[in-house]
């Protein structure tokens, strides 16, 4: 199950959240955090009314907050959501900020008309994540594999070569992205070499790759476990 944590200063939201379980604490970053059952942060939500956003732009808090969120390494920017609540009333500065949030900063954006709609959006989001607990999020390598597989099926067979076949096959394992598969193949030379070395010689947990933020990252536990189960354990 997923867990929901709401910042203790979100009084109105706390009063209206009736259909899902959540805990309340003072958060250092974001207003709502969704985690897995091992407390790994999956989604951070920064909730702002249109008036809050307008005021924070004018007093400089918006830039400071977005800078801190962008520098938060536990969650990819795509999974940091700005939830903008209320009617815009044609304020150009708000439209500009919303564009900047998505295009320049790489955050996701949801707009609701009222706090009641915000509650419905959050409730549905949590319920969907709870029903699909085993589904791996895009930035953990889940959808990468699915989408790339679909592409390969649509493309002509000559686009599959001796040079990329190992990477393509390895990326079919759940949780293994194209980026991770490419890194592993580069390290061991080929899928065949990797299998020959066997479980005892392969140190998947020590392999690092450069993620989409340009930072070094270790292969996820899920990917390591699945590679062993699919390829290395006899």
TrEMBL record:
SUPFAM superfamilies: Restriction endonuclease-like (SSF52980)
A GO CC term attached to the entry: Holliday junction resolvase complex
Record keywords, A-Z: Hydrolase
Domain (ERCC4) ranges: 3-88
Signal peptide residue numbers: none
Key word Hydrolase present: yes
CDD domains (UniProt xref): XPF_nuclease_Mus81
InterPro entries with a match to the protein in the record: ERCC4_domain, Mus81, Restrct_endonuc-II-like, XPF_nuclease_Mus81
GO biological process: DNA catabolic process; double-strand break repair via break-induced replication; mitotic intra-S DNA damage checkpoint signaling; resolution of meiotic recombination intermediates
Alphabetized Pfam families for the sequence: ERCC4
KW Hydrolase (keyword) present: yes
Protein name (database record): ERCC4 domain-containing protein
Organism: viral metagenome
Top-level taxonomy: unclassified sequences, metagenomes, organismal metagenomes
């Amino acid at each position: 199950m997923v867990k929901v944590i709401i910042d203790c200063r979100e009084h109105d939201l706390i009063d209206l959240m009736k259909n899902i379980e959540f805990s309340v604490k003072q958060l250092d970053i974001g207003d709502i955090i969704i985690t897995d059952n091992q407390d790994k942060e999956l989604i951070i939500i920064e909730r702002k009314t249109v008036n809050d956003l307008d005021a924070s732009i004018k007093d400089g808090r918006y830039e400071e907050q977005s800078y801190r969120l962008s520098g938060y390494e536990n969650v990819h920017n795509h999974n940091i959501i700005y939830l903008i609540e209320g009617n815009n009333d044609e304020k150009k500065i708000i439209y500009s900020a919303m564009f900047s949030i998505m295009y320049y900063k790489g955050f996701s954006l949801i707009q609701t008309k009222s706090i009641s709609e915000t509650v419905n959006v959050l409730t549905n989001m949590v319920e969907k994540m709870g029903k699909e607990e085993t589904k791996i999020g895009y930035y953990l390598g889940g959808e990468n594999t699915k989408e790339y597989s679909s592409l390969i099926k649509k493309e002509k067979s000559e686009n599959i070569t001796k040079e990329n076949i190992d990477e393509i096959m390895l990326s079919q394992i759940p949780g293994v992205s194209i980026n991770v598969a490419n890194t592993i193949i580069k390290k061991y030379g080929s899928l065949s070499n990797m299998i020959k070395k066997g479980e005892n010689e392969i140190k998947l947990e020590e392999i690092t790759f450069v993620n989409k933020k340009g930072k070094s990252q270790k292969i996820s536990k899920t990917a390591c476990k699945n590679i062993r189960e699919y390829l290395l354990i006899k």
